């Protein structure tokens, strides 16, 4: 059998050196398949326009005839080149800055294609790119893809390489959807769709390609969930938890606070599932600070007192350690042992822990992805809890679940989304919602200021730190590159060290090693660091009650729910807390977002307004909303497709031929790769 695209390294593509291979790795691209599925997030439009239809300020491409002798003015090393142009019946001026060398090529009567910004009032085009049709105009008339890139990878390199990859391997792109579905929605074949997404001939075709892949993405996602559900539905052979109520009440009474009504209600829902032979698969959603951890602790306690072990899986090491500490405090008085398993737990420590888990000596283990490694065994796993749900896929949860004999599964997410959306997005789960936060919290005051007030913001930092508090300063986000984000944070760190020589200023970003990150977080927890400069890596779950000030630079670049998550890092102690959004948003939506943040502190309200503000085609929209992430699809904008795909997937998996017919083999392969096995039914 010939190789599949996911078995061919990008090195096999002409023009990809070892160095470039390494750079591509940073974007999660290592095989030809990865590259071909690395889609552009927008297109540069070089299609020819007519001056009769353009608007002031548009970026346009037009074909024109050179109608005068060019005039060159030099100012020191700078220059300005102007020339009259004729397009259809319009006369206008084309202006180039610092392109004096073009002068000799601008001969009257010659055709030229110009791209630039149109000034309607002055009938002038400020040219950014130009091409001559008599020399072959390559860009003109086309849509050029724009990829998310950084480092040594340039747009032109990735465009060229993508073209090369399509030429070498395009023919091998397999179809994976069954014919019946292609016909039902009149979808483009997969090969054609992927090709046209990278090299659209026109926007209609590009859109058809996108439509096909959006459907495929959503369908595969739903297939995964529906298969998982079908394989587990109605299973009455789950763990039956038998811990009696009095024992659980004793644990709850040991907390330094009363449960909120919302916590009590959710606790009942969870305990009801846990006590029944039905396999619990429940999503617990609640706003930041609504007290999900304590609910998870009750469930974990229940499993231990019923004679089982529990596992808590979180997305980062920092979080794992944090949870480990707080759970230990809660469980110690009850003689329940808690272990920690992360990537940094190695050697003898790891071996001892694994042995102890297998023998059932450790009751509860908190960890990262390290928990789902093959050599992790439990004596009797009764409950799996995963925190910050959207960072784990269904498949990862499924792997952890398989480490026990049908353990109950509780999944927590801090990003509240409307219930209807939640049910569809997480179609394999029942949903519980923590709708209120503990009483007595001091509200977080949110301010929105312009950059010109940065001095005052710095003054605010001094005030808080001088009172013994701590502050976060979040560096601006550059959507196209993680490396630039890091650079921003590094620059900001240097500036703040200069601005606050008396304080210890820490730096945290995604390109640091785990050990480095942990060390900085430890210093921040212990107040050895007063001001923490960070990228969004602190977004999830970090809990430092003494931190009272959250400053977010260029806040308009962040999505609403991400801003809300970041704000949730403060207001966790007994001191008044503040969130300062530093932003000069240009768009109305950007201004609106800042407004929403200053108006409400309620996560459900933020999420409702977020969905309202995000229009269709908001490519990056979903990224921060707590909904599953897709390469092309958008849970909100493409909601209708989500529902269709869900119905199609459900129908398919309930048809017994799905598990045997050769037509569905690519889909079964997919499920297997995603670690969802038919064997789940039988084991
Ligand atoms: P999240 O839902 O964001 O994970 P946590 O579980 O971290 O929230 O809880 C935030 C803080 O609120 C913790 O310090 C926790 O101890 C505290 N907390 C939880 N439940 C209550 C309650 N019912 N009353 C008062 N404080 C609570
Ligand atoms: Mg939490």
From TrEMBL:
Organism superkingdom: Bacteria
Catalytic activity: Couples ATP hydrolysis with the unwinding of duplex DNA by translocating in the 3'-5' direction; ATP + H2O = ADP + phosphate + H(+)
Biological processes per GO annotation: DNA recombination; DNA repair
GO molecular function: 3'-5' DNA helicase activity; ATP binding; ATP hydrolysis activity; DNA binding
A Pfam family it matches: Helicase_C
Entry EC number(s): 5.6.2.4
Cited Gene3D superfamilies: Nucleic acid-binding proteins (2.40.50.140), P-loop containing nucleotide triphosphate hydrolases (3.40.50.300)
Annotated ranges, domain Helicase ATP-binding: 273-434
Name of the featured protein: ATP-dependent DNA helicase RecG
Source species: Paenibacillus lautus
Phylogenetic classification of the source organism: Bacteria, Bacillati, Bacillota, Bacilli, Bacillales
Gene: recG
């Amino acid at each position: 059998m010939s190789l599949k695209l996911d078995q061919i390294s990008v090195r096999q593509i002409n023009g990809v050196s070892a160095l470039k291979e390494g750079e591509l790795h940073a974007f999660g691209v290592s095989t030809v398949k990865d590259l071909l599925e690395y889609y552009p997030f927008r297109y540069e439009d070089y299609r020819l326009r007519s001056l009769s239809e353009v608007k002031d300020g548009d970026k346009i491409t037009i074909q024109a005839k050179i109608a005068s002798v060019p005039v060159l003015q030099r100012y020191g090393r700078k220059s300005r080149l102007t020339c009259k142009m004729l397009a259809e019946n319009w006369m206008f001026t084309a202006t180039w800055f610092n392109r004096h060398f073009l002068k000799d090529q601008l001969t009257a009567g010659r055709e030229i294609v110009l791209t630039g910004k149109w000034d309607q009032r002055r009938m002038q085009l400020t040219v950014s790119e130009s091409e001559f049709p008599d020399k072959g105009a390559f860009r003109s008339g086309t849509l050029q893809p724009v990829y998310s890139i950084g480092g040594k990878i340039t747009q032109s390199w990735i465009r060229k390489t993508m073209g090369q990859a399509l030429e070498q391997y395009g023919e091998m792109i397999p179809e994976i959807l069954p014919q019946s579905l292609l016909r039902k929605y009149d979808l483009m074949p997969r090969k054609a769709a992927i090709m046209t997404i990278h090299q659209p001939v026109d926007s209609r075709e590009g859109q058809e390609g996108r439509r096909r892949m959006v459907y495929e993405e959503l369908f595969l996602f739903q297939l995964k969930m529906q298969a998982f559900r079908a394989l587990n539905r109605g299973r009455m052979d789950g763990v039956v938890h038998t811990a009696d109520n009095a024992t659980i009440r004793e644990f709850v009474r040991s907390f330094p606070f009363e449960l909120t009504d919302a916590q009590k209600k959710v606790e009942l829902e969870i305990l009801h599932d846990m006590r029944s032979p039905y396999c619990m698969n429940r999503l617990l959603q609640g706003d930041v600070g609504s007290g999900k951890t304590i609910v998870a602790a009750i469930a974990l306690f229940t499993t231990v007192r019923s004679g089982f072990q529990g596992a808590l899986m979180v997305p980062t090491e920092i979080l794992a350690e944090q949870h480990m500490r707080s759970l230990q405090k809660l469980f110690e008085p009850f003689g329940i042992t808690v272990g920690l398993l992360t990537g940094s737990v190695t050697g003898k420590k790891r071996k001892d822990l694994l042995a102890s888990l297998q023998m059932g000596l450790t009751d509860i283990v908190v960890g990262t992805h390290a928990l789902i490694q093959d050599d992790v065994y439990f004596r009797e796993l009764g409950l799996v809890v995963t925190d910050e749900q959207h960072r784990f896929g269904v498949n990862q949860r499924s792997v952890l679940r398989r480490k026990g004999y049908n353990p109950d599964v509780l999944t927590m997410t801090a990003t509240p989304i409307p219930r209807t959306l939640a049910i569809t997005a997480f179609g394999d789960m029942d949903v519980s919602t923590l709708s209120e936060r503990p009483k007595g919290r001091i509200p977080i005051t949110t301010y929105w200021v312009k950059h010109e007030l940065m001095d005052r913001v710095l003054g605010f930092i001094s005030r808080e730190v001088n009172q013994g508090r701590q502050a976060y300063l979040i560096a601006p986000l550059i959507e196209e590159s993680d490396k630039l984000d890091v650079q921003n944070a590094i620059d900001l760190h240097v500036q703040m060290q200069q601005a606050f020589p008396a304080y210890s200023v820490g730096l945290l970003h995604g390109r640091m090693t785990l050990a480095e990150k942990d060390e900085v977080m430890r210093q921040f927890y212990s107040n050895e660091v007063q001001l923490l400069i960070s990228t969004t890596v602190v977004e999830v779950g970090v809990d430092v009650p003494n931190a009272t000030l959250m400053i977010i630079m260029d806040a308009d670049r962040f999505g609403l729910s991400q801003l809300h998550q970041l704000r949730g890092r403060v207001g966790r102690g007994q001191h008044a807390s503040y969130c300062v959004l530093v932003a000069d948003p240009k768009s109305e939506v950007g201004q609106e977002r800042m407004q929403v943040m200053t108006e409400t502190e309620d996560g459900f309200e933020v999420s409702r307004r977020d969905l309202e503000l995000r229009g269709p085609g908001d490519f990056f929209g979903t990224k921060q909303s707590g909904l599953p992430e897709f390469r092309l699809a958008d849970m909100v904008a493409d909601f209708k497709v989500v529902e269709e795909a869900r119905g199609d997937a459900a129908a398919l998996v309930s048809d017994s031929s799905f598990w045997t017919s050769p037509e569905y083999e690519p889909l079964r392969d997919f499920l297997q790769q995603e670690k969802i096995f038919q064997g789940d039914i039988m084991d």
